[in-house]
Design brief:
The structure is a homodimer. By secondary structure, chain A is mainly α. Helices cover about 60% and strands about 10% of the residues of chain A. In chain A, strand 2 (about 90-95) and strand 3 form a beta hairpin. The first copy, chain A, is globular, with a radius of gyration of 18 Å. Mean pLDDT of chain A is about 85; it is low at about 155-170. Chains A and B meet through helix 1, helix 5 and helix 6 of A and helix 1, helix 5 and helix 6 of B. Chain A binds a DNA duplex (30 and 30 nucleotides) through helix 4.
DNA sequence: GCGGAATAGTTGCGACTGCAACTAACCTGC
DNA sequence: GCAGGTTAGTTGCAGTCGCAACTATTCCGC
């Protein structure tokens, strides 16, 4: 069961990958449940609302939403289906490209976002942000970006707001 | 759409949380597909084999496996069902606690593990470990452990190998 | 040792997922 | 101005998930 010595020098990285998985899973699990309980909507839904509000013009294309919410195209379709059925978002086809579908907030979606934002951000801080210093956080983001770069996955992290320069984000 | 100033100081942390989500998702996605293609088994399955081999006595309890693989109890049950049906692992009830079920490798499970280990580790290095320095990796693990601690989720990261002191892990 | 609480694992069920196939719209070269 | 390829989004389908309810075993106070 021994592995080549050469592997030893990677074991720290593999530990880190595991830690990432666990934090992601555990923290999201806790946050998700707390949000669902307090705000009566799944955390997924709120993530969609955030992405819309943060996007230029307050609307996102389906493909962009798929990447931002870490889903496949069909996953995004169905997620938006649910939000639309609940009356929180609406689909609008753009006149420039009639294949594209933009997702925007409805009035009731905006109202829900406004109402739920503060408590949810509080949960996020309580469960995650309060325990990592800004320096640590920036370091982590930077180090992990290299990994995304190397896998040519950078598109997922940044250039996903293709049109205008982003206004002050809704969460910061 | 403005948030209280006080939030600004957490925005780095929220970025980090997003980066973590993206790395976890994107890297696992890539690794998972490459493994599935090259080795003809889902990456999930290999993770189970790793956890067994790394565990003391080369066997894990269902509950432990659930936490290690980031699943619910029922998720673990079904995952093991599949591996068992494929003849890679076997369930053994322990005489000390007749509620507990231990999962162990079969001969063919061990053979598969031995055969697939090196190529899969290579993929892991190629896609992740090679792009993070050991110092960075340790820093990340450490910082994220604080988050797990604060959420009383520490059990997930370490004391999950309750019995004997762990031998040299199978991956390092 | 007995009864109630806690723990380990499995199962039924509804919900969500990604893949692959599909439609519709756009784009490019000729 | 049309054929072939590409891109955006949706749908059928089979696979997986977590929750809640359930059985079986163990633990604990008395």
């Amino acid at each position: 069961m021994e592995l080549p010595q050469e592997l030893l020098k990677y074991s720290d990285a593999i530990d880190a990958l595991r830690a990432i998985g666990r934090v992601r899973w555990a923290v999201m699990d806790v946050i998700g449940k707390q949000v669902a309980e307090q705000e009566d909507i799944p955390f997924d839904w709120f993530e969609v609302l955030i992405e819309i509000v943060e996007a230029p013009n307050e609307r996102v294309k389906m493909t962009g939403l798929a990447r931002l919410t870490l889903r496949s195209k069909s996953g995004a379709t169905r997620l938006v289906d649910r939000l639309e059925k609940a009356g929180l978002v609406s689909r609008e086809t753009s006149p420039e490209d009639r294949r594209a579908v933009y997702v925007a907030l409805t009035d009731s979606g905006r109202a829900l976002f406004e109402r739920a934002r503060a408590p949810i951000v509080e949960i996020l801080i309580d469960r995650f942000a309060a325990h990592v210093s800004p320096k640590e956080a920036r370091f982590i983001t930077l180090a992990l970006s290299k990994v995304l770069d190397a896998n040519e996955l950078k598109p997922i992290v940044a250039p996903l707001r293709p049109e205008e320069p982003s206004p002050a984000g809704a969460l910061r």
